[in-house]
Amino acid sequence: MPPVKVREDLYWVGAIDWGIRDFHGYSTNRGSTYNAYLLLDDKITLFDTVKKPLAGQLFHNLQRVLDPEKIDYIVVNHVEMDHTGALPEVIERVKPQKVFCSKMGQKALEAHFPQAKNWPLHVVENGEKIKLGRREVVFLETRMIHWPDSMVSYLPQEKILISQDAFGQHYANSMLFDDQVDYCELMQEAAKYYANIVLPFSAQVQKLLATIEEKGLEIDMILPDHGVIWRKYLKDIISAYQRWSAYEAEQRVVVIYATMWKSTEKMALAVASGIEAEGIPVKVMNADTVHRSDIMTEVMLAKGLAVGSSTLNNHMLPIMADTLTYVKGLRPRKKVGVAFGSYGWSGEAVKHLLKFLEDIKAEVVSEGLKVQYVPTHEDLKTCAELGRKLAQTIKQG
Ligand code: FEO
Fold this sequence. Notes:
This protein is an alpha/beta fold. Helices cover 36% and strands 24% of the residues.
């Protein structure tokens, strides 16, 4: 995509990664973008760069706006290499007067790039303001959203927040603004991004939202480092971040299971039928066929979790262990759950599933349900009752 004018003197000059489908374990079904922004003021400033293999796209875009050697300042809001991979080449070609970063950013840059010791790094404090000419930029630390070095850049005269990973989406699109793309796709990708990247740092998100409120920062646009720019649906995404960071979920359930000879699958479907019978929406996800990052999105959005697995060698099935290890690491909270599974002769899977629910601090509403070999009609009625009980608890709020 060629450079896009965001506003007078402000351009998107990033790169689109249409083909990426795996972002260290996150399935990026709609590709991604690495956004960089160029501000033309007395001090010409580039905010963030792109992944190393896409440096060519960045240079191509810069050259269509101006000679890159005219750039005075570079801002590194976040050191992860999807935003700094191209930085050494950019610094070499641009020879900037200053490269702004946080204190942790300096450490991370020096750890990633030995040559950073020779770069004109300028560490900024939380809240520090730098004059660029007619405009200023204010740096606000956002530690752990999503690395310790992370910060955002606020342009008060433009009422623009350049938010690095926060408010991002892995969403490749030839259009740059939220009102130019499909709203449902956009919100789904924003939710998936939050669930799979930002959720463990929800306390820090609440802090950022509180800072925006306390400082009375007026924001007309949010420019993230991935996906599209928020201008029309600002209120929607901010209110979604408020809900997600407070672990508010919808009155619905996700049934996640893995099955060996379809007995646990029969149980999963029976549990789902009990949930449906109570009028609560339910999604059934087989861990063998649904990517863990899609499961994680549903886990964040749903209040209820029903987890099931056959027993294999005294444990749950490996694919279920994989999925739940991933889910647990992302620290979902305020869930209501049940566990179930079929077994041949020992049946430890359910015990391990209950431990998972305990680890994520879920409210477990029933003892685990185990069925030996193949569930009978009566067993399936018991599974449906388990689903009903879970749904009733959710309805009670
Ligand atoms: Fe988009 Fe944490 O990097």
